Amino acid sequence: MLKRRKRSGGYPSNHRDSHRRRTPHHLNTHRRKSRTSTTLNHVMAPSKDKENGTKDKEKRECSDKMSRGGECDTKNNETNKVESNGGTKRGGEKMEVDTDQSSKSSKRSWTQKICDLVKTVHSFESKSLRRNECVPFIINDTQVGLVLPEVLQKLEFHNDIFFVVRDLLTNRVRYVTMATDLEDRKKRSVQFSNVMRDWKDRDLFPALRSWRNETLQVKVGFAGESYLDVEKSACCLFGFKTYGVHVNGYVRNDSGDVYMWIARRSKTKPTYPGKLDNTVAGGISCEEGVLKTVIRECKEEAGIPEKLSSAARPAGTISYFTETEMGLYPETQFVFDLELPRSFEPTNTDDEVSDYYLLPIKEVKELIATNEFKPNSALVLLDFFLRHGAIDPDTEPNYINFTQGCRRKLPY
User: What kind of fold does domain 101-128+241-412 have according to CATH?
Assistant: First the structure.
């Protein structure tokens, strides 16, 4: 929960609201009935173009204190913090992090928790029994997916569209494919969509309750041939690979310290509602390129104009294979870093994000080890920390494990 008040209108001047309380730069804890929460307070050095008359001496003293891990004096210089106003958070409020779950493992180190995160994101790798129960989905002699056993049972009722191929001796299912008369992508897509809509109307699978009206291409590699267009919510039932973009939006203060814009997902989102997320993230739809998706998602989710988002720097890809109660998620994310002006405030325009927070990189690093973050987004941030030197290879015993955890190869 975040205490709400009116926005301060960006980075406040040195004299504005100086009567308000000082915000300490450390963790405060308080008890609320049986629930324990941790309050994070965030301090950001003021932007040069927003100080409105602050004396040079005061600016230097503030920067010096921050570089030593101290605080700026809020009597003469109100610092920029996280604020609640239905969108961007800035101006002096506190973000509460629920520690109900993580308190049970409070004695576990950050390293141990991140090892658990890597295992969670790659959960399908560790489930050999479940993996053996799934059967390949084949199109044109090429594997493009894995069919869950519960899905296989339903497919056999649509034998005019799907062929379930069995071993002649053991009667064991070898693979699933589509009817031979569906020889092109368009015909396959139409028939596949009809079946998925029928399943949705009959509420056969929970995953289809979050129907998106957004189609994704099914193909072997990102640059490969497209075999099928599928509703996004149905991809997990067949283990179809999907592709998306994640953008790490960040700013630097006068001392060069990195602060990251972190989004909180809307509570109405069908997946991971209310969890923390990257600045911008979204799937690559049919016929849409990577950079075009970045620009579109930046505009829709964070109100970032194209003149800023077009400067996003590609930083490689991250792949993982996760299994949840909904289905299978073999995914590859194209990662981008985007340094934003300190005067810019993200503002959501499509109701997919409830809040934005500007947090020091050290606090983001701690947060990804909690249950607050969407797991795959936490992995993207882990990759950001590795690339930007926020994790020391000499002191982190699992440095190689973390690096390899961000660079898995998908099985098909």
Answer: Nucleoside Triphosphate Pyrophosphohydrolase (3.90.79)
